[in-house]
Write a structure and sequence with these properties.
alpha/beta, Rossmann fold, 2 domains, 5-stranded parallel beta sheet, about 45% helix, about 15% strand, globular
Length: about 425
């Protein structure tokens, strides 16, 4: 069911793993371009048309009403409500520590003031997958950092269910997290509505949140006109385990990632050859007990692997090369090993920190860089919802002291107008 990778096959497997993420967007872009243009021109009517076409739902009222919000709170399972509230508190307590208040300083002995002013983005749109699969955790992970950052207006879009409603847990999570308005629309048409505005849905300045290939393509297309967070690829987990690790836990954690979709990648890297057979047997046993067996088997067969190395150092090197979205360290020295990891979206330490803890409850954001982009990007955070503006003040004396250096730089770059803007002030100085 799952590939066992030896020394000869490692490079080839890593190349194939990267190909998994090379989505061919050409055909998708052709469809998405038409949708975006239609929504720009025809607004609400186009949004309703595509919701009927793709989601098979006819919607009269695009926006979730106050009555629907009250109904969601009245009908949601009370234990689930308590869980959502606990998760909200954990996410809030983690992200509040990310707040950047800016700075200002005066170089010693100089009449100069320099600084950085931090302001929230005024209007943000959050995309939350919906329909058959709905993710209240995604609501919390996007809305709470935006709220902490001070975003003035948070608008959320999510596809409706077959009955034209939004799942109770989605509405409740949005309300608790501080979302201002919720709209029953998804897909490329929803992204276009947030980017350009309609009669009902306000235009925003940045769009965050995951979605399918059509959502990702639409975010790419509107990027630049509005900001976006990231283009998330198929989900992935990499586990580094030593001979002391529990094969039951390893198999369960690999399966938990594989059940996302057929393109998800679940990878074990270990120097323990005795562990390999135990994990394979556990995978075969556990898969047969789960509802999403078909998806899990395809994911593990096509994109899963157990990589056998000669040393723990080689395990670490492979992890840094793959730069996984989720990295679990199931080793006796995990608290030392994690310091050697340079590229990962999130690191989970020890046997009792499985990846779902981070997905739902711990507090750090679960919107993570995929497809090796952890080499240069980070988890969604409060900083994604702010703007930084530089502040510069020079007195006459300060400009006079530095004018020749500034003029010299400008003239070296061939920008005589820049040099003149400084030189013209010489008389007044």
């Amino acid at each position: 069911m799952i590939k066992i990778i030896n020394d000869v096959d490692k490079i080839g497997f890593l190349r194939e793993l990267q190909k998994r993420n090379a989505e061919d967007y050409n055909d998708v872009y052709e469809v998405v371009d038409k949708i975006i243009e239609d929504v720009r021109n025809n607004k609400d009517s186009a949004v309703k048309k595509y919701t009927l076409e793709f989601d098979k739902v006819s919607i009269n009222n695009i926006e979730v009403t106050k009555e629907e919000i009250e109904e969601a709170f009245n009908t949601i399972d009370k234990e689930l409500l308590d869980t959502i509230k606990k998760s909200k508190e954990n996410i809030y307590n983690f992200h509040k520590r990310q707040v950047n208040k800016g700075f200002k300083y005066k170089p010693e002995g100089k009449d100069i003031i320099l600084g950085q002013m931090v302001n929230p983005i005024d209007k943000v749109g959050i995309y939350v997958p919906g329909g058959k699969a709905a993710y209240p955790s995604t609501v919390l992970m996007n809305a709470i950092p935006a709220k902490i950052a001070g975003v003035n207006e948070i608008n959320m879009i999510t596809p409706p269910q077959n009955d034209g409603k939004i799942k109770d847990s989605i509405i409740v999570a949005a309300s608790l997290a501080g979302v201002d308005r919720i709209f029953k629309v998804g897909g490329a048409q929803g992204v276009a509505a947030l980017a350009y505005g309609t009669e009902t849905i306000p235009k925003v300045y940045k769009i965050t949140g995951p979605g399918n290939i059509f959502v990702a393509a639409a975010k790419r297309k509107v990027s630049g006109f509005v900001g976006i967070d990231m283009i998330a690829g198929p989900s992935e987990i990499l586990i580094i385990a030593d001979e002391c690790a529990n094969p039951k836990y390893i198999a369960a954690d690999m399966i938990s990632q594989a059940e996302h979709d057929e393109m998800a990648a679940s990878i074990l890297v270990t120097e323990s050859r005795s562990l390999v057979d135990k994990v394979v047997k556990e995978l075969e046993r556990q898969v047969n007990l789960l509802e999403r067996k078909e998806i899990i088997e395809k994911s593990l067969t096509n994109h899963g692997a157990i990589i056998v190395t000669d040393s723990i150092k080689e395990c670490i090197d492979i992890a840094n090369e793959i730069a996984p979205e989720h990295l679990e360290l199931l080793t006796v020295n995990c608290f030392e090993m994690y310091k050697e990891i340079k590229n990962a979206g999130a690191i989970f330490l020890g046997e009792y920190s499985p990846e779902p803890v981070g997905d739902y409850f711990a507090g750090p954001n679960h919107t993570l860089p995929t497809s090796s982009t952890a080499k240069f990007s980070s988890a969604l955070c409060v900083d994604d919802f702010i703007k930084k503006t530089s502040i510069i003040y020079y007195s006459k004396e300060a400009l006079n002291e530095n004018r020749e250096d500034i003029i010299r730089f400008a003239e070296n770059e061939g920008l005589t107008g820049h040099a003149n803007a400084v030189r013209i002030r010489e008389k007044s100085i």
